[in-house]
Amino acid sequence: MFRRARRIVVKVGSQLLAGETGLNREFILNVASQIAKLKEAGREVILVSSGAVLAGIKALGFNRKPFSLAEKQALSAIGQPYLLAEYRRAFKEFGVEVAQVLLTAEDLRSKERFLNARNTFESLLKFGVVPIVNENDTVSTEEIQIGDNDNLSAHVSVVVEAELLIMLTTAKGIYDKDPLKNPDARLIPVVEDERELFRVCDFSCKTSFGTGGMGTKVEAALKAVKKGIPVIVAGGNEDNVLQRIVNGERLGTLFLPKKVLRAKGYRILYLMEPKGKIFVDRGAEEAIVNFGKSLLSKGIKHWEGEFRKGDAVEVYSERGELIGKGISRCSSSEIEKKKVCIHRDDFVLIKEGV
């Protein structure tokens, strides 16, 4: 299935990178070796790596995660140079150059910055360089935080138009419950219906150093597949896991692609922070959901929050059900003066037909 996948994003989590006294050099060398082999086979690889905060924790001899955003930012600033140095040393063994790319959500929200990021990745890949991506924790505030590298890997996959996202973890895939605590835990080989997945699975477990457990991986995978990108969550400690996956071996959990979102729709739905809520009447709801019409001001019952023209807002039915999310063509103070509040080209539907 993936033999023709030319551009691949690989995500590595903190737990895989954690060694007894610092970063796990053996694992980093192993990942570098596998990626170098993929490159030799003519594939382009972007690596999204956690580990900066972990490296900072180890450097200072801490035995806990940071309590506050400020602590996380400080530890990331300390650890990021260590992390990149380890990757550079490992990739150098195989004659591969690397580049550091640090992103925030703000870099991906606007079309201009989104395209600038894409162009940077294109140039790096043209040079034969492996981009190593992390969130720019040292400058991130709550408003521009992506929050975890699972979701970052999905966003990066969309930016670079990847043909496959591989998320490596300490588990062998997605299980219906925590396999460390439940010997009867069952591996989910394929995910086609996300509703069925959440019905049978418990994703409440979190890791000691990572920002989230399997829940964030599932959340990220479901984002990528809606842009048409297949996702595999697999065990990072499996022998030659990357080569085996691209050669067609069934490992881990495969999330099948759906491709229901354009790049613009993806940015609206997953990257733009909603600044307000708009509640619409039954007629407007039917026009939007069943016929793909724009949201007219006359169909708005009321709204919450203060927002400006160009801000993202959530649209709800008068019963309080989320219908979708879009970019407002007016400020909250101008709603009654404008004919069109959200144009259909700037709206992403979430609710199914009514």
What would you note in describing this structure?
The chain is of the alpha/beta class and 354 residues long. The protein has two domains: 7-264, 3-Layer(aba) Sandwich (Carbamate kinase), CATH 3.40.1160.10; 273-349, Roll (Archaeosine Trna-guanine Transglycosylase, Chain: A, domain 4), CATH 2.30.130. It is built from twelve helices and 15 strands. The strands form three sheets. The chain has an eight-stranded mixed beta sheet, with helices on both faces. Strands 11-9-12-13-15 form a five-stranded mixed beta sheet. A two-stranded antiparallel ribbon has the order 10-14. A hairpin with a 4-residue loop joins β12 (312-317) and β13. α2 crosses α4 (69-92), α3 packs across α4 (69-92) and α7 packs parallel to α9. The longest helix is centred in the N-terminal third of the chain and has 24 residues, at 69-92. The two termini are 37 Å apart. The model is unreliable at 206-211 (pLDDT under 50). ATP binds at residues 11, 211-217.
